[in-house]
Give the backbone structure.
Amino acid sequence: MNYIDQGSALSRKVPNRKLTKKNSLFYQQSVLENEEFLQKYEKNVDQLQTVIEEPELKEVIQIRNEKFFQLLEQIIKVESSIKDFAKGYQKYGFIVSDNGITYREWAPNAQDLKLNDYSCTTDNGGNWEVFIPKDDDDNHQIVHGSTLTTNLNDLQRASVWSQVKNGDKAIFWNPDNKYELQQQQQKLQQQQQSKGLKMIKQRINELENIQGYNAILITQQVLMAVDVNQINPEELKKKIDELHQQGLQVLMEIDHQLLGKHLKNWDGSDYQYVREGSDQLDYGKWEVLRLLLSNLQFWIQEYQIDGFKFSNIDITEDIDVAVYLMLANDLIHDILPNGITIITNFEYPAICRYIKEGGLGFDLKVSQLQSKQYMSKTLYEIRADATRAEQLNALVFGQGVISDKKDNHFLLLESQLGWLENEFAEVNQIDFVIEVKRSKYTFLINLTNQDRTIQLNYKINQIFQQEGYKQTQIDENSIEIQIQSEQGLIIQ
């Protein structure tokens, strides 16, 4: 069976559609030319700030921007806006209404499809659905907590759009008393980060406020589904509310490699959500984009997640991936102007520049320890066994840390010095020792596995650490210091 690109098919049906201001930000026939659009985006590549500063990037930025705007126009023509496009969770899966329950699924390879014993019909474009009306007593025929199985061809599956699971089984979640979020997120989003982002990794069922951190990073469940074996949706909403009230932000890590493995062969084909013959998501497909973007909006709207870390996604050789990430950042920052997006560092142009400047739109990137320059949009991961040199490197060069350890020594170090986020840094290297002058301190960092001896030609008032180094006074203004391997000094 050939794959049907629904986006292309639908957009061809509405070539002259005129959008109204009621249903779209971009309401003129030429959606990429109206004033409101141009206030948000810059189409002229020569006017992009990144291209002005780094003209050698013009070609790669122009190619990806052209595809971004082409896809954006297609989305707007068909769905009115990215936010409407990303409301797939209100269309697919199990949709409860006053009259009954509607189930929809996209499965282009299915020859027949049932939800439990309820037979679905298809539009011959890959979409299947069934409406299950209430019974004569005005009760839903599917009760809260029931297991729901999608049967297609000879396969048994849990709906891709399941919002609750028990292990690998889809659960119909419709309790009488749902927890109502208290809108703490909006207040939290209005607060500017006065210090660097200090984020601790936690399990979704063990969320708690840890002193010294201002954010929590949780690993995503499978797409939109919360596993009731760990925590149920109402408990999770209540816990996030409590953390917001305590001033913490809650971010979610999305593992795209894991999603690709989960979605592979879902409808029995090897082309539905992934690229044929691989585990990699096909980021150029309409329904793949709808699912991934809906996943982001779902967690923001339903659980008030404050941002995302994008993991295991390779953008170096795939323009479709870059365009997806631009759409994702555009969506997230449209819903949450101060939301946080993070990506693992790649040698890729303008990752942390705004889309209107020619970038991908990320706020921060996670980098391996480095020593070349102060990077104000960089986070570092602090391991439990991080050396003092690695901790100093993270404090001095980046804008924050991600840690999986509660009693990290880094927090004590940071509390002693104060966060250095907005201070200019002067970086030098002296015989493999990194010298950083920042704020009122000078940091000497030896990331190597050998002891290093250097000479400093300035007067030292105070050295904070009493171990891990030896010093010899040469004259009044010169001193020779030996710094042990993987150690660092703080000088004032």
